[in-house]
């Protein structure tokens, strides 16, 4: 047995199992068929006995109807008579059919049929005489012994008939019981054989497969702890013996490569952590001064400026936004590459997303003399998916289309997919177009149509690569058709599912002055420029603003001034925003605390909310975002 292969052993066990199964099925089938046949005969005999009793009842019913008619001459008594005679004849016919295999019972039924016909003739004669007003003659027949003698004979025949059936019933019940017992014995024997086969196969498998594998496992544990260097087994199938030899060979190779693998892993982990730290730090370091620049530009919009200055201001704000797009592209690409970007699932209103895209790009397109339109052909408004990432996909494609279109039009067409459950988004433009070679590389990272594209139109070359990755993460598809010099059409399919309409409580638009008037606001921010920007944004409103440089001073100010709303930067000297938030939450559970920081990685934002921050505002921020938070937490 030690030389047999596992494949051969499996085939033998399979064949034996099939044979045992066939035997079990055959025994069960024969037993079931025999039991059913015996049971049928038992039920058949019960039915015959019941029919014979019913026959006597119907005869009595017919006779009762005849007597009632003779006494009252009311025809209503003829109904039970006629029903009794008809039913009795039908029962006799049925009994003849059901006992066709029993000659003795057939003779009794033939005799019974003759007697029943005579009885019915006697009853019918008395009814006919009564109908002809010959009641005296009818009563003489009734008072004679004719009817009584007929019924006595009928009862005697039926009694003999039933006794014979009772004898048959006892025999058939005994046969049925014997058959059931034999069937159970046969099934138990067959199952026992199968069980013994399984036990035998299990013991053989345990001795020649399982035990050797367990032995190899124990040897592997000793090998892992450095207590053993080779692998060997005694009684085993050929495959397990071969496995032991292969493990011995591999163990030496594994030992040789383990140190190099550990070293390589350590370098990879360090590199990944360094990359993540670098991106987080660079994002923070760039966004912090950007907040000062972008905030200052927003404050300048309040001032009365010349048209030229206003034009310069608008271009500066656009440059800031473009720089933020580049920063976000780099961060998104890093998260996608490391598998840390996750797609959310929520119900959202698609027309609102399309309206935001139209609002963002229409001014840019109009300035270039390009017509930008959104054509929504969907009948349903609410869908299940990730609205933020869908907006990012469409905004990337549409802004690219506007960027590379010098004249003509850009259209975003939204339609229900004809082939799958989801939505198709088509972005069509009349721009520069793409060649066949450019189409093949258009979704590659850091790729643009040609070398001069970056100089002419700007961009990182990451937008379409990120778009393709986001579409893949959402289990969608993206294709492009284009002709050089005539324009392009991007077709994006996203498997969105229709969602029920989300009815939100309508909040009246309130005046921010009324919402925050008289409130106390605390800002903890160590950057002087960002302090000035925040203070300037709050200057037009009737609020008491307290500004401190670190988390420790924020705690002291909260205890002293008892503010209504707190904004905390994260990276500050002495005590950072995270530690300050933890201490605030221990004493002031209902005080709203907002994280106002340049850290925008999803892992950072999740950590802030877990620590107790009520909300997160990324730097640089729009004044509209700040106003929304002020109204949300200060409006009574």
Give a nutshell description of this structure:
With 636 residues, the chain is an alpha/beta fold. The chain has helices at 6-72, 78-98, 103-131, 135-143, 146-224, 238-300, 307-337, 350-368, 387-403, 436-441, 451-457, 463-473, 512-516, 528-538, 551-561, 577-587, 602-611, 623-634, and strands spanning 346-349, 371-376, 382-385, 409-416, 423-429, 477-483, 487-494, 497-498, 520-524, 544-548, 565-568, 593-597, 615-618.
Specify the structural class.
alpha/beta
The description of the largest β-sheet is: 5 strands, mixed
Q: Low-confidence parts lasting 5 or more residues at pLDDT below 50? A: 505-509
Average pLDDT rating: 81
Counting copies of identical and different chains, the oligomeric state is single chain
Description of the structure:
Helix content is 66%, strand content 11%. The chain has a five-stranded mixed sheet. It has a five-stranded parallel sheet with strand order 10-9-11-12-13, with helices on both faces. By secondary structure, it is of the alpha/beta class. The two termini are 85 Å apart. The protein has helices at 6-72, 78-98, 103-131, 135-143, 146-224, 238-300, 307-337, 350-368, 387-403, 436-441, 451-457, 463-473, 512-516, 528-538, 551-561, 577-587, 602-611, 623-634, and strands at 346-349, 371-376, 382-385, 409-416, 423-429, 477-483, 487-494, 497-498, 520-524, 544-548, 565-568, 593-597, 615-618. The longest helix has 79 residues, at 146-224.
